[in-house]
Amino acid sequence: FKITKDTRAEQESKELELMQKTYDIDLVIMARYMQIISDDFCRVFQHRVINIHHSFLPAFVGGKPYHRAHERGVKLIGATAHYATADLDEGPIIEQDITRISHRDEVNDLIRKGRLLEKNTLVTAVKSHLEDRIIVYNNKCVVFGD
Fold first, then answer.
1. Which candidate in 89, 97, 105, 109 is catalytic?
2. Per-residue confidence (pLDDT) for residue 46, from 0 to 100
């Protein structure tokens, strides 16, 4: 579905209907999904939408966060996987990981390391969810071991 500001509500309604009635979707992954989902979507799929992103938020919001982080000389980069809520990027955190950065690293190194972290962090979060090892309480996740 092509989503624009004018078609967002209608398209999301169609997506929800397909996901619930046609495909019986259990889990939604928002990897590289650069749209804000509605409160209604979050309510329908409560604790069943996982978002993954770099851990530069809120310091480097917007485009080219790795470039800006490189300019500032960050020493750590990371990734955060969390359940999506109506409050943008404030949902219960399922998994996080970090790696060190040095002055020798170029922007492409940060991007490569960041993508690897995001991939591994997402896999761990999804695995924990699918294995039913997560309890959400007070906007926090308790994740039980393997």
1. 89
2. 94
